[in-house]
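Hi L.,

You mentioned the student needs an example of a multi-chain input paired with its predicted structure. This one should do, with 666 residues in total across all chains.
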Amino acid sequence: MDQRDVARIARVSSATVSRVLNGSTLVKPATAERVRRVIEQLRFIPNGSAAALRYGKSSSYGLIIPDITNPFFSEFIRSFQEILADRNRDVLMASLDHHASGMQESIRRMMVRQVNGIALLAAEIESGPIEALVHNRVPLVTMDRRLTGPGLSDIAIHNASGMNEALEHLHALGHRRIGYIGGASGLTISDHRQNAFIKAVKRVGLTVDPAFLREGNYRISGGEAAIQQILAMKTRPTALLTANDLTAIGVLRVLHKSGCPVPQAFSVVGFDDIELSDVIYPPLTTLRLARQELAQTFVTALEALATDPHAAGNQYTVRTRLVVRESTGPAPR
Amino acid sequence: MDQRDVARIARVSSATVSRVLNGSTLVKPATAERVRRVIEQLRFIPNGSAAALRYGKSSSYGLIIPDITNPFFSEFIRSFQEILADRNRDVLMASLDHHASGMQESIRRMMVRQVNGIALLAAEIESGPIEALVHNRVPLVTMDRRLTGPGLSDIAIHNASGMNEALEHLHALGHRRIGYIGGASGLTISDHRQNAFIKAVKRVGLTVDPAFLREGNYRISGGEAAIQQILAMKTRPTALLTANDLTAIGVLRVLHKSGCPVPQAFSVVGFDDIELSDVIYPPLTTLRLARQELAQTFVTALEALATDPHAAGNQYTVRTRLVVRESTGPAPR
DNA sequence: GGGCTGGATGTATACGTATACATCAAGGGC
DNA sequence: GCCCTTGATGTATACGTATACATCCAGCCC
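Structure written out for the whole complex:
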């Protein structure tokens, strides 16, 4: 069944049916109503593939993330998908999950599907797939790569705002030895975050002990490993910032097992503010990165590039801010 | 750029290019190689919309879940997507997130996209959208609805296997008063699970105190509310089963706050075995529902229906089994 | 009343692919 | 040497839509 069947029954042409379906103002209200009734009655569903072929675009966007089971990303997906669904656009999602070849393949599949653009939240990024996107004029929006170009926008995470708040908070609580557990090194996003930490420490007049800078993996296991190393040190920090909340949860877990009360013996600050942060024990003081705002910015950036394929990319920014809960307290003497 | 451009440069017809792309055996190896080289060199990406239009199907599947931030579902998505990506198929995902109208719209969008079938893990289900699917011959596979038909398969969760193990475990530990915190009532899946619990209790020779049957919402908050009611009772159960792990986590959290040591004062058993279960404190004894196996069964069921659209649906089953960790122990005297 | 304007609708076509069917060459059997 | 088979390739077309362009008609101005 297609538009022509609808047209025949409604005694109009298929062009008119198409116009009704796309909300053209050119159709007389009475005619439109008649067509709509036939569509309803026949339960006609238009063929999106034909429309995409004709139109050259598929009214869908690709979304690539590193790990869907990380709550930060699943919460992001929820917002992203919701915003796009309101605009009647689909999301083609790909979660890499530490499969090396995943990204190349995912991008290819999305290009085959004629997505209007791709949101890339993965840190690791090769130049090959990006070239393919540029070559085929597919807009790309990345997170915290701080690189823009034709058809390529970026959304920077403004780590400094939250980090500064966090350090003022800890400094005011009397902490002088403050450590940081980062993400996997080599990723730009990890570097930006760690640099923001170092700057924020200096800003409140403290120094950074390199031994207090540890590496994690953005997962619980990384936080656990890092805090164990820290507990083994003779001189320890009294407070810790982490690259994300999962890392902080790993830290809390080991501290709990080791009989280190939080925040009495140790203050811990997370990053992201995933929903879980408010639910673990003790509720996590963390730097909130608003998912809803981030998702909205991605959509804005994508639509801007999709509308005008020759547009130069923009650099966007999303701020972070401190949310104080119960995992931070006065420094032990 | 299209197949004809490739064809011209490779000095073959577009039909041959199409055959090469689809791995037809009809092409001479030397010719295929030549065509492949041109494809590579031109970085040609085929147009999936055109293929879908011509072929009538889009080589993608729809996936509808109630809440992507529930780890059970995000872990399922990961497996589901991974299995389909290996078969070069895309996933169109929709998370309902308590939006009432979401399902109808999601299904419609998927039909417009010509999905080969839809996996529906949402509990609430109206007949309207299902009719639309049947009417358009779109295969549907549901979870634990125990209803099949033409183009409609179901995957039942075999609650009994795990529930029986759990009750034997608790009974052996000396527990005699055992409670259950279910999901939202009225959903078939909640009913099946609760009934399995009641049967399992009777099976070990105990009786079910109706006051020990509480209702949750499959989220942490539901577990919290239910355990608070239970703590307020004069005669309390000594052990609790829950409809999923998030509910159990809510229970653990309130017990911890209330100074009730687990498992000394209370034994708690979850359901699902999400990754978090092994990470919270104490690690959760739970009924494992293998996500990988569930996802694989969904794919099998969908492909079976997609291959033969006139096929009658099948009833599949996925078992559960007890994973003992540290949230269960001997009953208090 | 003739010509013009603009709104409403119809006609015709291109989008890129997969495949049925046609064609052609080579080889084998007699 | 001729016919048939088989393998390899080419030709032609339909899938359902959106839209440029054509058409038609009513109303209006002078």
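You could point out the following to them. The first helix of chain A runs from residue 3 to 10. DSSP finds twelve helices and eleven strands in chain A.

Best wishes,
N.
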